[in-house]
Model the fold of this input.
Amino acid sequence: MTESTVTVVIVPGLRDHVAEHWQTLLADKLDNTVTVPPLEHDKLSRAARVAALDDVVNSVDAPVVLVAHSAGVITTVHWAQEATRRVSGALLATPADLERRLPQGYPSLEELERGGWNPIPRQRLPFPNIVAASTNDPLADPRRVADMAQAWGSRLVSVGAVGHLNPAAGYGSWPMAEQLLGELIDGRHLPALDGHCGDEPRIRS
Done:
């Protein structure tokens, strides 16, 4: 399996397409990518987001590697419990802990509960995957992310103090995404990487 034979499926978080987000920039840079489209209705419905991901994955003829961020990670984990097609791997970046109250401006715990997001599945994922974890993510405690990664059978990679790895935290381009994606595509299983996230942040809010 090589990059030219793989389709990368981008799984955004609850805020969907963000122009300066690293997922958007990665999709623009790679040749074979498909992004799960924004929902027109039921934007906080876990079932609707899982169905949208399933539709995209099943529309692709080539081998698929998923690249998920934030609540997109949780969408992916829920999808894996009822997936109708196998994928080759997944990069799961800074998963949002939807079982805990999120900062102001994000959906409330009650809204997430009504949307069917919780509990977050803790079953081992049926495909190779890497969890890229921040040490100071406002949307998830690193210890809980580590516990989730262990339950999912993930390779846990610390990418340092990068906040939630989004434009609000100063991150647009994220070069390490390509590195980790390459490792998944090549089938490599290298020792966990520690420290910084590649380049310094290039967006400041």
Summary: Residues 26 and 173 are 8 Å apart (CA to CA). The helical segments are 22-29, 46-59, 71-80, 109-114, 142-152, 175-186.
